[in-house]
Specification:
The complex is a heterodimer of chains A (about 120) and B (about 110).
Chain A lengths: L2 E5 L2 E3 L5 E8 L8 E6 L5 E7 L6 E3 L7 E6 L4 E6 L8 E11 L2 E7 L3 E5 L2
Parallel strand pairs in A: 2-11
Antiparallel strand pairs in A: 1-3, 3-8, 4-5, 4-9, 5-6, 7-8, 9-10, 9-11
Chain B lengths: L3 E4 L2 E4 L5 E7 L7 E6 L6 E5 L3 E2 L7 E6 L2 E6 L9 E6 L11 E5 L1
Parallel strand pairs in B: 2-10
Antiparallel strand pairs in B: 1-3, 3-8, 4-5, 4-9, 5-6, 7-8, 9-10
Classes of the chains: A mainly beta (about 120), B mainly beta (about 110).
């Protein structure tokens, strides 16, 4: 069964840091681009970041650029999101998702269950 | 960045109803459009990719259509398990923008 399990969320003060992890199983992790998407409480989905299969290419939304770093360890089947200079507006459930791509089009499937990041003093 | 809009933002419907949700992109995105379903407290689930391709395991009452800037998600006969929020997403650019969502609840 293809599965993604996030961890690392929790309560952090404004300006603080946190590292999220996403462990993959049931598929060849090193063959897929991986993504992070977040959802603030009661709000819609916001795309955060992506990393290519070998880690050589990354993408960040403007809202997190310079503060967040995406990385992966293919030997551990694990995706990471290092979050720094956290703000109240970063408070959200963070989902990791596997990227699928065919003929130039992309989609996300499956998604992990999410991990909640709370930014508060 | 490509902006995505959805209409309506919410609707009330009954079991058995035929439902259509519209998604519009701010520029031409060809057929690079996905639809997801999200239930409260759960992760989003892929329904449709590339505008009209049904994801494996998704019931055939779900269908997608459109290209360019205008897209629709149709549920042919609403079932109790379909009450959820639906999001479109463009994959034309790496900003992978989502629409604001359409919440479908019980009339």
């Amino acid at each position: 069964e293809v599965q993604l399990v996030e961890s690392g969320g929790g309560l952090v003060q404004p300006g603080g840091s946190l590292r999220l992890s996403c462990v993959a199983s049931g598929f060849t992790f090193s063959s897929y681009t991986m993504h992070w998407v977040r959802q603030a409480p009661g709000k819609g989905l916001e795309y955060v970041s992506a990393i290519s299969s070998n880690g050589g290419s990354t993408y960040y939304a403007n809202s997190v650029k310079g503060r967040f770093t995406i990385s992966r360890d293919n030997s551990k089947n694990t995706l990471y999101l290092q979050m720094g200079s956290l703000r109240a507006e970063d408070m959200a459930v963070y989902y990791c998702a596997r990227g699928e791509a065919v003929a130039g089009t992309n989609w996300f499937d499956p998604w992990g269950q999410g991990t909640l990041v709370t930014v508060s003093s | 960045d490509i902006q995505m809009t959805q209409s309506p933002s919410s609707l009330s419907a009954s079991v058995g109803d035929r439902l259509t949700i519209t998604c519009r992109a701010s520029q031409n995105i060809n057929n690079y459009l996905n639809w997801y379903q999200q239930k409260p407290g759960k992760a989003p689930k892929l329904l449709i990719y590339a505008a009209s391709s049904l994801q494996s395991g998704v019931p055939s009452r779900f269908s997608g259509s459109g290209s360019g800037t205008d897209f629709t998600l149709t549920i042919s006969s609403l079932q109790p398990e379909d009450f959820a929020t639906y999001y479109c997403q463009q994959s034309y650019s790496t900003s992978f923008t989502f629409g604001p969502g359409t919440k479908v609840d019980i009339k």
